[in-house]
Structure formats: C-alpha cells, structure tokens
Please model this.
Amino acid sequence: MELQNSGFEVVIIDDLSNSRIEVLEQITEVTEIKPEFHQIDLRDKKAVYNFFNENKIEGVIHFAAFKAVGESVQKPLDYYENNINALVYLLQEMKDRNVDHFIFSSSCTVYGQADKLPITEKAPIKLAKSPYGNTKQIGEEIIKDSCKAYNMNAIALRYFNPIGAHESIKIGELPLGVPQNLIPFITQTAAGIREELAVFGDDYPTSDGTAIRDYIHVVDLAKAHVKALQRLLNKQNKENFEFFNVGTGKGSSVMEVIKAFEKVTQQPLNYRIAARREGDITSAYADTTKANEVLEWKPQETLEEALLSAWKWQQKQS
Ligand code: WQD
Model:
C-alpha cells in the first residue's frame, strides 16, 4: 500500500502458504488500486523464470520467507529450502534481465545476541542462534556477492520486531494456525481464541527477567521500504550493497508489552511463566541513526498505538 501511495505500480507474488488472497481486496479497499497478483512459489525455478520472462520489473522487494525463530529450530530444512533457494532463483532471474534494484527483508537476528545495545549496523554479525537467523545471514552474503559480481544494487533492511495493523484496520497480521510471534498470540489470547499466553522465560538478565525486543509498527516498517527503493532508483546508494537497522530504538520486555496491552485495550491478559524458548536471545533493540539520517526515515507510531491497532484488527477477525 505504501508503494502505491508513493506512485509505484505494484505486482505481488505470493504462494499463499502463509497469507490469504483476501489481502488483495483489502489493499484495494484502502488504496482503490488493485495490485496485480501472481500465485507463484519462488522455490519453483521455472515459474520464477516465466514470471520475469513475461513481466517488465523495475525493482524487487523480497519479503517471501519463513520467519519464526522457534519454528526454524524445529524445521531447519524447510527454512533453508524456502529462505535460501527462493532467494537464489530470484537473484538469478534478476541478474539475467538486468533488474538491479533489490530490497531484502533481513533481520536483527543476524546480530545474534549483540554485545552492545542499542545495536548499530557496525555490530558484528555473530553466529546465528537459530536456523532462521542463519538464513538471513547467508541471504545477506549471497546478495553482497551477487551485487559485487553482477553490479547489482541492493539494500537489506534489518527488521526488529514488526507488529500492528494498518490504521484502516483492513490489513493486519494473519498468522495461519498457532501464532509463533508474541503480539498475535497476545491478541488471540485476549480474544479468547487461545487459553493463555506462555511467557517464554522470566530468568533473563533484564529488569523484570523477561526478554527485550524492539517492537516497530509494520506501517513504519513499510515506509522504510519505500525510502530504500527510492534510494536505489535515484542512484543515491553509496555502495552496491547497503544495510540498515529498522526499529524504533526502544526496547520493551515481554512483561512491559503485556502491561502496555492491558492498559491500551483495558483487556486483562491471561498468561503464565514458562520455560525459555530455544533460539531466543535476551535483548535486542536498534540504534536507528543510520536509517534516520541516510534514508531520512523515522518511525512515527508508538508501542501502544501498534498494540491497539493489533487488538482492533483481532476484534475484526472474530
Ligand atoms: C518476541 C518475544 C519471545 C511468543 C521476530 C520474528 C523474526 C524477526 C525478529 C523479522 C521473545 C517472547 C513469544 C510467545 C513469548 N523479525 N514470546 N511467548 O523471536 O524476537 O523474532 O522478530 O525478521 O522474523 O520472528 O519475535 O514475537 O516470536 O518473540 O514469551 O508465545 O516474545 O520469547 O522474547 P522474535 P517473537
């Protein structure tokens, strides 16, 4: 939607394995422009070839990946096949057709547990603590090498924790099955769909013992993508491959999120303390200076606004 609002003609590719076709109608209701849609599994090399053969593409924003840290520990091969093979097939077709503007959904998980907080882009890439994080590290390396060898231009946006729904409450997170991420699990618990929220660990070395993350409104995140694509299209990038942390710069513990949710929604939340989840780190929140200054991008929404939008979206689903 943000791309359409900025005048781009948008073509969406999705295999609908973790999303619903109704999203197209919801986008159209908000922007009154129905995006072109192709149901393609990017692991299908021939289908990717055919798409690029039949469509003139100026730039690609690659969101299509599995993204649950915990799930990746249980299903590593699914994550390597989907997050790596699909990326390679996409880049191969882009190279062959000189489509050389590429935005990549990366993740703060590339930093593992950073030694210094807030995390800047200068923080070392550490051994990933989950197969998901490893696919993002490998993905960035593949892109960096491809940019160098084939003179492509790419920007990796290292997401912190995307949450919330569009202000129209017509678009939001739609996890299929049991939610892996905190916010949809909270909203489904508050809606009575889930019995209670399990808080994965209260023995972390933090103020209240629960893990800290940087929760960024998904619309703020979307706007960062538009800025990044415009940077490449306007040839403002200084390197073939650039990367930016995209967060709010503020860390919130799981308990702080629960309390903030209860406050903004007036919904008491049923939760219990459970064991830590394998693959989790203690704390991650962004130093956003580089994105603020270079991309001229700043997040606008607060944690509370994001949580309220997520709750309103959840109430619409019931
Ligand atoms: C957040 C916190 C959990 C569920 C996500 C995405 C990943 C990447 C980074 C973009 C952790 C705790 C969770 C629950 C809990 N984003 N939690 N009970 O693991 O930080 O990773 O952001 O690339 O794609 O998955 O997010 O929402 O799973 O967990 O206590 O039922 O909430 O332990 O501390 P995570 P999350």
User: Anything to note?
Assistant: The chain has a mean pLDDT of 95. Residues 2-312 form a domain with the Rossmann fold fold (CATH 3.40.50.720). The chain has one domain: 2-312. The CA atoms of residues 64 and 135 lie 12 Å apart.
